[in-house]
Amino acid sequence: MIIKSENFNLKQIADSGQCFRMLEIDKDTYSLVAFDRYIELKQIDDETIELSCDEDEYKEIWHNYFDMDYDYSHIYKRLISGDDEFLRDAASFGKGIRILQQDPFEILISFIISQNKNIPAIMSSIEAISRMFGEEKASGSRTYYTFPSPKALSMVSLEELREAKLGYRDKYVQNAARLVASGELDLNLLKKSDPRVAFKELNNLLGVGPKVANCISLFGLHHLEMVPVDVWIKRSIEEVYDNKFDWDEYEGYAGIVQQYMFYYMRFGYNKED
User: Are the CB atoms for 229 and 214 separated by under 8 Å?
Assistant: First the structure.
């Protein structure tokens, strides 16, 4: 099926650091595994995406996954009409980014794994635990592996987790999976909670610090006001704003602003311009 949006770009979403199972398989074409489903997406033009699913599956899963009910054009227009030249450029450069509504457990584990790893290594580890502990499924001629459930991952030994090349993160993954599987950590409840409460609980988990807690909050709980601060965001705050950027000016959508800044700093910004 076909969907149209002025603010939906597959490459920008895939490269925005929020999703690790969205892979380019051909020019302007991506595969994606999420919520136990496999889909292929093709960027036809700047405003048109073709999806390999029918309308019923789109309504059931992908409409919400791609956050189609949120008005990104409103945020984009607000930024490009503002006085901040850097944010005007960042929003214009990454106008197709959307904050995906991903599975909270997958995001919890993915960002625990992400610590001190580059993106290819993160993707490799996530694919490994999916192959080892998820379910094998087929979509047409394609075979894919679902992300393991909390119960399945909670029963895996540290020795087995080490085979997925998680390194010192294996015990953090095991602990998080057991907490979710037992119900002691209720991610769906945290999704409905005050973002500050959710952040505090996530930040108290073994092996989770402020940056990872913010990533889980933004990308897994869809708390759009949360701001993960990585090397790219630190660099933008230091170089562009002399450490005086005020996130409170973007209350309620600072996480979207962060994504524009991250993507622009990583792929488009030139200090000499």
Answer: yes
